[in-house]
Amino acid sequence: MTERIHEALRRLQKQLEARGLDANAAVLLMEHVTRKSRAALLADMREPLSDSELRQFEEESAELLTGRPVQHIIGEEWFYGRPFIVSEDVLIPRPETEELVQHALQRADRLFGHEPIRLADIGTGSGAIAVTFKLERPDSDVTATDISAAALTVAESNAGRHGADVGFRPGDLAEPLAGETFDIILSNPPYISESDAPDMSPTVTGFEPHSALFAPEEGLVLYRRLADSLPGVIESRALIGLEIGHLQGPAVRDLFQKAFPDAAVDIVKDINGKDRMIFCEIV
To answer: What's the CATH number for 5-74?
Structure first.
């Protein structure tokens, strides 16, 4: 029997809710299956699904009900108003990281005006930070690093998709930047303590790369390494922006204040009022 869009959608939403999963994922999946925008989907809720659409929706619903992120099923996530390819090799871009880019762009305008900027994105993953900065500030020279070759493949695909001229380099943290200096360094490193894994959603821990999520020493080890290495790769006037866990602000601020004694190091809250970013301005 033919099923209408709203009937199939509500059925899946109830199944997701019963398993403690995000019911909003059902709408994203339906948009993907019907190839409709959100507005068109809302307007056509009483339209029947075709046999092929219903079959695809059933197959992909089964995947969704295992806890697999909807972004992996549809193959993309939106970031800063643009679709980015994602896979199990990269962290799914989050709204908090959009805020890191937004604040970095604002501070770049204040610190550098219209001067050309050399920027490095350390641990680029999907390339969302590097590609977005390049597109929002076309005069910038952007380099991105990642230790994962698979992640760099995804990032390069995203740069190509959006026509962003970004240079990609394999390697651990700032090592691929040795011998050069940059005006801005941005990074969203793994920062979740391994002890927090049992309390996290299985949709995250079961499907996203642990190397992009977790870090030893209560999630602080990579910040220590960055604080040690970044003085050798930045200009005398520079900006460093880092995403952090909401309980890590004071510890990360202290690490960078010690590394850059004369810098202004700020903890910046996200839209939900949680400590989410560290910005270090060296002037």
So the answer is: 1.10.8.10
Measured CA to CA, the distance from residue 44 to residue 6 in angstroms comes to: 9
pLDDT value, residue 215: 66
pLDDT at site 203: 72
Q: How far apart are CA 224 and CA 203, in angstroms?
A: 29
Q: What is the pLDDT of residues 105-149, one digit of tens each?
A: 999 999 999 999 999 999 999 999 999 999 999 999 999 999 999
Question: How long is the chain?
Answer: 283
pLDDT, residue 214, reads 64
Residues of the chain above pLDDT 70, percent: 92
Q: Residue 245 pLDDT > 70, yes or no?
A: yes
CATH class for domain 90-282? alpha beta
Kindly list the domain boundaries of the chain, sorted by start residue: 5-74, 90-282
pTM of the predicted structure, to 2 decimals: 0.92
Classify residue 75 as left (phi > 0), alpha (psi -120 to 50) or beta.
Answer: left
> Residue 169: pLDDT above 80?
yes
Other C-beta atoms lying within 10 Å of the C-beta of residue 126:
27
Buried b (16+ CB within 10 A) or exposed e, 193-215: beeeeeeeeebbbebbbeebbbb
pLDDT of the residue at 197: 62
Please, are residues 110 and 65 in contact by the beta-carbon 8 Å criterion? no
Contact between residue 34 and residue 53 where contact means Cβ atoms under 8 Å apart: yes
